[in-house]
Design goal:
The protein has 282 residues and is an all-alpha fold. It contains 12 helices and no strands.
């Protein structure tokens, strides 16, 4: 019975996934078309890897609810502004978001090969994310507590909480960029962590959904690495970024110190909780 339920959910999720994946933009310079991933559908089963989301009675469920309520205090702060910024998933937006971490200004125009390999890989990681979303169908936190959140609800319709698709996409970018720029791996993965945390600050995801996104992206990418096509495309992207880094004329991003301060801001530790509680009490 469980197997039949899982199979049916897999089919439904695959259909939803196909519609969602079709919305990912094609690499700059290519004809508008649906980008295909490196993995055949069904080649990787995320449901055998990703644990179920916490239910009532689980300490993680209680922590999710507390974190959601505490982080409402970020509204109107610079960290809220960063979270609103991180909602946008156009290539030019995400490449800009990772430019400080990468140490160079990334654009669809100057790094089309890098963009192409990420978008193609994102088909695979998004498929995994959507399959898990539709299988678990966990409510988003703002559906339980009617409070302010940073994204129009219609944009989230039909897309459950667990795991976060945004955060999965951010980790897809980060894992590939860190492999292409290993000397910047700390900065790149820190930005991906903050990119995911932005979804909690926004009020549209639970923290456990963000944690699950890293597992979703990393485990799917582990399967993608076996693809000769992926390895070939990755080599081309590496040459492209190496050339950009060596080129003195390559633009460097601005205001990175301010972004770094926000990325390094603690959101969930005891000090963060105390600080937010004081803000809420004012």
């Amino acid at each position: 019975m469980i197997r039949m339920k899982r199979t049916a959910s897999f089919v439904v999720a695959a259909l939803v996934s196909a519609a969602a994946l079709a919305q990912l933009p094609a690499p700059t310079g290519s004809a508008p078309s649906r980008v295909e991933g490196y993995l055949a559908p069904g080649a990787f089963d995320i449901l055998r890897v990703l644990p179920a989301p916490p239910m009532k009675g689980d300490p993680r469920y209680k922590a999710d609810r507390e974190i959601f309520r505490t982080t409402r205090a970020f509204y109107g702060t610079p960290r809220w502004d960063l979270a609103v910024n991180d909602v946008k998933l156009r290539p030019e937006d995400v490449m800009r978001d990772f430019s400080c971490a990468a140490g160079i200004s990334l654009t669809p125009q100057n790094a089309p090969k890098t963009l192409a390999v990420v978008l193609k890989t994102a088909q695979d990681t998004r498929r995994s994310s959507d399959i898990a979303k539709q299988f678990y169908k966990r409510q988003r936190p703002y559906e339980l507590d009617r409070v302010r959140f940073c994204q129009p609800a219609p944009e989230l319709a039909g897309s459950p909480d667990y795991p976060s698709g945004h955060a999965t996409y951010g980790w897809t970018w980060a894992i590939i960029l860190a492999e292409l720029n290993p000397d910047r791996a700390t900065e790149i993965t820190a930005r991906a962590r903050a990119f995911g945390e932005s979804r909690v600050v926004c009020g549209v995801h639970n923290r456990t959904a963000i944690d699950a996104s890293l597992m979703t992206a990393a485990s799917t990418l582990a399967a993608v690495r076996s693809s000769p096509a992926f390895q070939a495309d990755l080599a081309v992207a590496r040459a492209e970024l190496d050339g950009l880094r060596r080129e003195p004329a390559t633009a460097r991003p601005a205001q990175c110190d301010a972004e770094s301060a926000l990325v390094n801001q603690s959101l969930f530790g005891s000090r963060a909780a105390t600080a937010q509680s004081r803000r809420m009490a004012r």
